[in-house]
Amino acid sequence: LFRLFLKQSSGPGRPLRGEFALQAAARGGPVLHVTGRELDAMSRGRPHQGVCLEAAPLPFRSLRDAEEPPLGAGESGSRQLLWLVLEHIQDPMNLGALLRSAYFLGVDRVVASLSNSCPLTPIVSKASAGAMEVFDVYGTDDLQGFLKAKSAEGWEVVGTVSKPRDVEDVPVISCSEFRWDKPVIVVIGSEGEGLSQETQLQCRRMLAIPPGRALHPGIDSLNVSVAAGILLHSICSQKRRHGD
């Protein structure tokens, strides 16, 4: 952390900004009081609530640091591990919302493809409501190889799809039918194209969210972060029911 910028003003946010200043000072960080116009420029016109922090960028972490201990014999059913894998998520607001949901719902790891994906930007951090700052995100440039290796280790890899008719060679089930009985990786695809064909073929099954009505053409899918939240909650609620 380098410098904290606070808006020069009175008003309802002033006591909280004063608390921020005390925390920054306790960490040895300089605090500068600037105008709202200067904060607008720093945040490139996006909302800032009177506070900007200059900090080092957060890179994707290496998958070498993400590995769990190997699963022992008969252990897979008792360790309900859940990883979320993101392929080609390009919108920073969506990425931030995905990280926020994953953190809230108890996902153990998030892994993102490094190619054709949004980097970990300040917009992502803000959209994640700060989850990105406390929840590591791992990156890989060989997504299919990573999924293949995890399958060989005994993990169940499941993909997600909004239009079941678009999937070939992989069975599609409703998310309510999925049973979480081994470590699982849920793979989410890009906003426009979904999962690539190569990634689909690494999945044992595809999960779909059944719609609540007959859908009008062109309005036949959910926002990717909303869909991921529904799917993750559907899976994670099983863990709570089992009392683990």
Number of strands: 11
Percent range for β-strand residues: 15-25%
Overall body shape:
elongated
Mean pLDDT: 89
Compute the CA-based radius of gyration: 21 Å
CATH class of the largest domain: Alpha Beta
SSE order, as H and E?
Answer: EHEHEEEHEHHEHEEEHEH
**CATH architecture verdict of the largest domain:** 3-Layer(aba) Sandwich
Distance between the termini: 37 Å
Low-confidence stretches: 73-78
Structure keywords:
single chain; alpha/beta; 8-stranded parallel β-sheet; 3-stranded mixed β-sheet; MRM1; mitochondrion
How are the SSEs ordered, and which strands pair?
Layout: E1 3-7, H1 14-26, E2 31-34, H2 36-42, E3 51-54, E4 61-62, E5 82-86, H3 92-105, E6 109-113, H4 122-127, H5 131-134, E7 137-140, H6 143-152, E8 156-160, E9 172-174, E10 184-188, H7 197-200, E11 205-208, H8 224-242
Parallel strand pairs: 1-2, 4-7, 5-6, 5-10, 6-7, 8-10, 8-11, 9-11
Antiparallel strand pairs: 1-3
